[in-house]
Write a structure and sequence with these properties.
The protein is an alpha/beta fold and 174 residues long. The chain has 6 helices and 6 strands, in the order H-H-E-H-E-H-E-H-E-H-E-E. Helix 1 runs antiparallel to helix 2. The longest helix has 23 residues.
Length: 174
């Protein structure tokens, strides 16, 4: 593994000045990437529904969605965000109709979720979400990690459910 930086240094010493910058950047990227992979960690998403919604688990939400004549509404803090992509994957895997409602941030999204204007959200396990769950303002019905999370051991990981085998959606940070 040390051969790559050493080789890069040898090439660096023989190149003309404009190429040296690119090679130095490449070497540093290799070193930083290896270091970041050692200190990084995954952040799971939590499936959150309004407290008033009569479901306690994700399979119950899926069953309810299959009996509805209209699509289940889900919010995200914008197009292409982790919450949007995770819900689209859920929709694809389960075959349920879902309507995406993008918001301009987490605050209006959570306000509408607590008020029951949308049916579900995939939220990051950060910020005020754990407090709102503890206060009973919203309900957590699933988590996208492979194993139960220490903070929410009662949540069954989606990947452990028979209908969702292999469903894992962690955000990497480090």
């Amino acid at each position: 593994r040390m051969g790559m930086p050493l080789f890069s240094f040898c090439v660096f010493s023989r190149m003309s000045p404009p190429s040296r910058t690119v090679e130095l950047f490449f070497t540093m990227t290799m070193v930083l990437t290896r270091w970041l992979l050692m200190v990084g960690y995954g952040l799971p998403l939590i499936v959150v529904v309004p407290a008033s919604l009569p479901v306690k688990t994700l399979p119950e939400l899926i069953a309810m969605a299959k009996t509805k004549t209209h699509a289940v509404t889900f919010g995200s803090s914008g197009q292409g965000t982790s919450g949007h992509l995770a819900t689209e994957l859920l929709s694809f895997r389960t075959g349920i109709k879902m309507l995406h409602i993008p918001y301009k941030g987490a605050a209006p999204l959570l306000t509408d979720l607590m008020g029951g204007q949308i049916d579900m959200v995939f939220m990051q396990l950060a910020g005020g979400t754990p407090g709102m769950i503890a206060d009973g303002k919203v309900k957590a019905i699933g988590i996208t990690s492979r194993t139960p999370h220490p903070r929410f051991p009662q949540l069954t990981p989606l990947a452990a459910q028979k209908s969702m085998a292999g469903f894992e959606f962690d955000l990497w940070a480090g």
